[in-house]
Structures are given as C-alpha cells and as structure tokens.
Amino acid sequence: MADYGHDLTFGSFLTPGNRDPQGVVDLAVLSENVGLDLVTFQDHPYQPAHLDAWTLISWVAASTERIHIAGNVTNLPLRNPAVLARSVASLDLLSGGRIDLGLGAGAFREAIEAMGGRALTPGQSVTALGEAIDIIRGIWAADERTPLRVKGEFHSADGAKRGPAPAHDVPIWLGAYKPRMLRMVGAKADGWLPSWSYLNPPTLRESNAIIDEEAAREGRDPREIRRLLNITGGFGSASAEPFQGPPEQWVDQLLALVLEDGISTFILGSDDPRTLTVFGQEVAPALREAIATERAAAGTATGRIRSAAVLASRVAGIDYDSVPASLAARSVEPGDRGYAGVRSTYVWSGSPGLVLRPTTSAEVAEAIGYARTQDVSLAVRSGGHGISGRATNDGGLVIDLGALDGVEVLDRERRLVRVGAGARWGDVAAKLAPHGLAVSSGDSGDVGVGGLATTGGLGFFARSHGLTIDRVRGAEVVLADGSVVRADDGHHPDLFWALRGAGGNMGIVTSFDIEAAEIGNVVFAVFAHDASDIESFLQRWGRLVEESPRELTAFLTVVRQQGRFIAQTYAVWADDDTDEAALALQPFLDIAPVLQQQAQLAPYSAIVAPASRGRHEGQARQRSRSALVDHIDGRTAATVARMFTEGQTSYFQIRAVGGAVNDIPTEATAYAHRTQNFALSVLLRGASVEQGIAAWDGLDVSALYLSFETHDHEAALTKAFPGPTLERLRKIKAGYDPDNTFRNNFPIEPARG
C-alpha cells in the first residue's frame, strides 16, 4: 500500500446537538475561519437530541462562504435517494459548489424501523446502497434526455425526470467496513470514509486492498477513490496514544497514514474550539509541507486521477499530462461527468478534446501558454451563445472564461464599472440596477460579456447610447506570449482600438472597464403582427424605425408558422417618459394587423434576465448569415420573403442600429460600420442551405456583423472589416500575435515584413 497522491484536505466532525443549535453553527464557521476544508455532521434522524442533519447542512451553507459540507454519513434508509439527489444538487447550486455526499447503509436497524424506515439485513443494505447510488447519479445526469429508469429491489426510479445537475462534481463517499461494502466502494464510490476507532493499521491496509482489487476489476484506477478518515484526539504533552500529543507528533502520525495507507482527508471529531483551531492552523499546514517534501523526493504522481473510460476518450494532439497544475483540477475531458455541460454552446454542439476553466488572468496566461504547445485548434468562450460557431470545436481545446464573472462599480460618479469577460449580461444588468446604471448589451441575458464586448454589441440602447464597445474605456488583456496588459487610450492604444471590433483576434480580454449609462426604468413594448404581406411589412417597419426618435431601439423577429408570417417586435424606450414612449410606439400598431400588444415600465434587468444559467447543449447544425444595411428597401424585403416561401429559412431578424452608433467616426474603432441603420441576420437549415446562401449573397451587401456570421467563407472577412481597417488590424496583429495564436475567429493574418 502506498500514497495515492491526492491533495490533502482537512475537516471537522461536529455533534449536531439541539440543546445549543447556534453553538454547532458557530463551530462550523470556526472550522472555515481556521482553514479547514470540510465540515461534517452525524446523521441519525432517530436521535431526538440531534438537529436534523440536512436542515443543519443547509443552514451552515448559508452561514459560510468557502468550506465544503457533508453528512458523516447520511442515513440512506431514511432518505429517499431521488429526493436526496435533488436536495444535494439544489444546495450545491445555491452554495456555489460546496456540498459533498457521505452515504451510509444504515446500521441501527431497530431505530430505523421505529422511524418508518425499512429494516434490511446487512446484505440487503449493500444492494440497496448500490441502487441508491445509481439513482442519485442518474438524477444528477441532467444532460441525458431520457427519463431515469432504475428497477431495483429496494430503490427504484421509473421514468423520473433528471436534474438539476450540481454546481460541481459532487463526490459520493461511503462509510464502510465489511468486505461487501468495501467492494461497493471500489465499484461505485468516489471515496471511502471510515472512522479510526473502528479500525487498526492491519484492517486499514486489508480494507484498502479489497477496494483496490474491486476497482481494478471494474476497470477503474484505484487512485480515483479518495481515502478519508475520521479521527478523534487532543493536543497536549507527548503520548504513545494515537492523536494525543503536541502538533508535531500529530504530523508524524498522520504523515505515516498518508504515505503508507493512502489517507488524504483527515476529519477531526471534536467540539472543542481550541482543538479545531490547532488542527486547522498548525497541523494541516505542517502536514501539507511535510507531504510535499516526501512526494518530491519519491516522485509520487499527484493531481487529478481520471478513469480508464476517460483516458480512452482522449484525442490525439493534446498532451493531457502537461496541463498546468493550476488548471488541472478544473479541466474537463470527454468522459468526465461534467463534460456534457461544457462541450457545446447554446447553438452549436461541440466535442472538444479538453476544456480549461481558468479563474484568474494569470491562469488564462497559463492556459494560452499550454494551448500554444498543442497540435489542435483553440476556441475561447465567455458565455457560450456562440451563434457564429467559434466558441467550441471538435477535438480541440476550449478556454472557458465563465469563472471570470465579477461585476464591480469602480466609480459611481463617473459611472465606471468593471465587468469580467465570463459574466453574463443578465447578471451584469441585475448588479448595476440598484445603482441606476445599465450597459447596452444585446437582447439576451444569457450572452457572455467577452464575445459581445469585443465584437460590437447590438443592444436595446444602441440608437440612444451606441454599441457596447462604444462605452468600453479600458480592458485587461492576456496576450499570446502570456503577458497581461492594460489597454486603453493611454496604454497600448493600438491594441485598444483593435479590441473594439476585432478583440478575439488579438488576445483574451479578461475584464472590461465600461462607462455605463444613467438609466433607471425603461419602457419595454412587445408587438406581434400578422405579416402575411411580408415585403410590404418589412419596408414599413424599417421606415418607421428610421423615423423614430433615437430613444427608441427596436428589434424584429420573423418566423413562418403553418404558412403564416408572424412578426414580433421588441422595442425599448431608453427612459421612463411613458408619454413620449407612447407617441413613438403608437405608429407600430398601424403597420399590419396586430395579434398581440403590451407595453410596460420595467427595469432593464428584467428585460435581459438570464434564462438558462449555463448548461448549453447545442442545437441542430445550422448556418447563419448577416448583413448591415442602410435601409430595408424593396430588394432586401423581396429576398427575405422569397427565402421564406422557398423554405430556405424559417427565422429572420432585424436589429436597429443607427442613431448614437453612427455618431462615432468610422476610424475610431475596429468596428467601422457607422453609416448603416440595420443589422440583419438569417438562419439557414436543412437541405436548402446552399440555395439560401446563394439567395442571401444576392443582396450584394458590403458589410456584416461578425457574431451573426458562421465563419465558413473567406468573403466574410472583408465585409466585416473594410480595406483600411483590415490593413491596420493586420499590422497590429503582427505586433501582438505574430504567430497567429488567435486564428480561429475570422482569421486576420498578421502583416509580414
């Protein structure tokens, strides 16, 4: 038996007595404050002197910020496994990924039966535990679209709906001692959680051997299974007894258990504040230092252990063993439980070979350095709407910025806010609303900040306050060489110019400083029209928008349903003047038969509230085409109508620009389209995609919007960036990314020579 190489973690095991309910909560908070990683509680529902463990776990989760929480161990016979799965996942989501699951088969049969539970023999309990694990994991597998069906002898699920998925990969640890239970650990669990008082060193080694043998039989690497241990003791003068003596004696004893028996999590059973404090502040750091020295000398493999199934899913061209240590724990590969939640974007299904999820700019720099050494394509993702298809790939590497999601008001007087590239615009709006601020940011709260704020940003305040990029005042950028720089008018002004329109080609922006607008409530209107005469409708709608005051920004979506054209308008009047808004909105009711209408005074945060919270599963493969035009003229309207009637599309959108967007000089940003009044986009699907592309190309437009254009044709580059803009971008690219690391956006080749 030897060290399995797991990182060391330390926890407390507290008595959930109900005589002093706040006392146990205070000890949990103390556990966090003294540096422990985990706090656990007994779960004996039949014990009237105890608080209910799950209620206590929930309360402690709300009272702490960092520490993980678990039952030690949860009494399965009195907890329905499907409901327990949902409870754990829900609290894990609410706590930011801090709930772990210890499970026990239930040892006190008479007490369980007295509480209405089913008394099982030891053998039956093991069978029931295995069935429960299958149900719990099945409920958490929210990405699987089939109902959950587990037909067990003691626990069943027949058509249960799956979900939610937890916020993190919740480990299941089993409290086990007998051979059948130990084999269950090896076959299905993520960890083994015994108590020292029930063991001795020979038993510990024999039990580990049974677990390892069963794991190997199931095709698992035994190192996948963390070995935890509940211990009790106290600090004082030197003693021959285990865990009785000064901290340095504890370190020696625990070090032997790590090196010889593979224990990597020590959970101290004590309700004494001083004992917990010494354990967290003296023993834990000293043991970590000692084990680091021993592992370095022995060359012990450390880091995350992946299953044989995951290893078999790895793709050529990626050196998985060289992933930087700072990124390895959060990285996701095919076969990992969390892979389904990160592989795709909202629109595009993907199958990347590796997803890196940095949490800081320094980690982004490490991710870039690693990516440059791999022989696969690189995609960068912020929120993951990804209409253009550039935020995922097949067989490549994805750097997911979702963890860089901070929103901070830097200077309220100047309306200056700092927003992480991985934040979503709905969350940004919600956090700025109490300050009376808002940033124009597309039409969906699920869209990520990074992609939109480096491309343009066609939002509901476009005509009144400009594009999102027009409000950016600075950015933190990680360059291809790994350096982290500030880009603004006074620092790297050439890079700052390029970021606003072509940022994805120059580096990875990790945060933006944005001058928000002073906006409280706005008037939000929704109209649905019967647009059967679609050509006439589109032209009338376009003229009306152009004639409207710039306080009004309108977006239009046209779909075909059962042979009829339905046109839905979303319109925002950018302040709370309802009288002026009504005057501007009234004409929309006269352009075609109205099927539905409503208008309300609402905060901007309610209009762009996030809907899906991150789990994107992709959709049917589709292509998108875009165009920026001055007017909705007869030719444009006729082309769109024909594409609908010939079945080349069933979805078309117009977003109003103009107004404040066109106040900005053409040369001020890399987004150079400052004369057009409308951004058009169309989705092309099915067998008639090529005919649809040909029809759209017949519009013969000279400009397009990058984020709504599938990057599968070279002509898009020159339409996204006019000649002088593209030439300038290539020169800047040569300075900041000469090796063209960021080439999977619309490919801007660095200037040569």
TrEMBL record:
| SUPFAM superfamilies for the chain | Bacterial luciferase-like (SSF51679), FAD-binding/transporter-associated domain-like (SSF56176)
* Span of domain FAD-binding PCMH-type: 348-519
Names of the cofactor(s)? FAD
Q: Which UniProt keywords apply?
A: FAD, Flavoprotein, Oxidoreductase
Q: Name the domain of life this protein comes from.
A: Bacteria
Check the record and name the Pfam families matching this protein. Bac_luciferase, BBE, FAD_binding_4
Q: Which InterPro entries match?
A: BBE, FAD-bd_PCMH, FAD-bd_PCMH-like_sf, FAD-bd_PCMH_sub1, FAD-bd_PCMH_sub2, FAD-linked_Oxidoreductase, Luciferase-like_dom, Luciferase-like_sf
PANTHER family linked: BINDING OXIDOREDUCTASE, PUTATIVE (AFU_ORTHOLOGUE AFUA_1G17690)-RELATED (PTHR42973), FAD-BINDING PCMH-TYPE DOMAIN-CONTAINING PROTEIN (PTHR42973:SF39)
Similarity comment: family membership: Belongs to the oxygen-dependent FAD-linked oxidoreductase family.
The protein here is known as LLM class flavin-dependent oxidoreductase
